[in-house]
Amino acid sequence: MYLQRMGFGGMARNMGIDFNGGARFNLTKLEPMLQDVHERLASVIIECMNYAEQIIKYDSRPGTLFYLDPPYWGCTDDYSKNLFSEDDFTVLRDLLSSIQGRFVMSINAVPEIRGLFADFDIEEVELNYRVSGKVTPAKELIISN
Fold first, then answer.
1. What is the pTM assigned to this prediction?
2. Sequence-distant (≥ 6) Cβ neighbours of residue 83 within 8 angstroms
3. 38-86 pLDDT tens trace
4. Dihedral (CA of 12, 13, 19, 24) sign
5. Which of 113, 135, 133, 116 is nearest to 124 (CA)?
6. DSSP per-residue string spanning 63-76
7. 115: which of 27, 31, 73, 78 is 20 to 30 A away, CA to CA?
8. How many other CB atoms sit within 10 Å of the CB of residue 52?
9. Pair 109, 124: CB distance under 8 Å
10. Which residue segments constitute the domains of the chain, with CATH numbers given?
11. What is the DSSP string of 17-64?
């Protein structure tokens, strides 16, 4: 018997079942794994708020580091209509210009982003996107202060 399951990027993954062998999932290993995750996340705070509110709330000292991964320029409606607009990039840039802490942002390499964030450190990196088994060469920007 074979089951098909969707993975990241919609890639189909076939999973076989061996009726003569044991399960690959071992319940006795679950508790220690959950304990490790619990210890790693014990001091983590997860917030659900607007990016600007969160940056303002947590930018209280120079040692703060923000990692930002906004929607790609030209793809702002991919997650939800009106969740993040092209105007938000200007708001984000202005906000990042005034923070006490540090930031690192990854974003697609397009002229509009280069222009908006020209006053920051910009490094272009080459990478491959892999979706549905297809590999596409791409470039992204790592922007920081």
1. 0.70
2. 71, 76, 77
3. 898 888 888 888 899 999 999 988 888 999 999 999 888 887 788 888 9
4. negative
5. 113
6. T-EEEE-PPPTT-T
7. 78
8. 13
9. yes
10. 2-144 (3.40.50)
11. --TTS--SS-GGGHHHHHHHHHHHHTT-----S-HHHHHHHH--STT-
